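This part of the workshop introduces the protein records we will be handling. An example says more than a description, so a record of this kind follows:
>
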Amino acid sequence: MHTPRIVSIQVGLPQTHGTPGAEDPLEQPWRTGFYKTPVAGPVYLGRTNLVGDGQANRRVPCANITHRWKLPGLTERVRATGRHGWYMRVLQEGEVEAGQPITLLERPCAEWTIQRAFDVMGHRANNRVEAARLAAVPALATSWRQQLAPR
């Protein structure tokens, strides 16, 4: 059986890019934590982040990919594929490094894959029943539960 491993750990602090006063919206100033540098050796993983890392925002997918690649509509295209990143909850702080194995300890609510959850979040207004089911998942982030609440 294949053992999944951490391939790379990369960190970077938010930076501002763009040109003040630019007419093209994709050239105007924007802030991002998009640019990361690989870490050699162990790095401390705290409850909310890796030491030396930061995010400018926590949208999924990050709207800054449109700015980074200067392709209007890229964020929407990535969202439509369902192949974008996600954040994981840290259960235990400590050092991590590339090459370490990743072990699945439990899978509560196995019917709720990342793909299914993103599908519901993207179409929550169209499917209130599925939105209510997802909102009832005990481990769901409070921010997601708030977004799923009927308006």
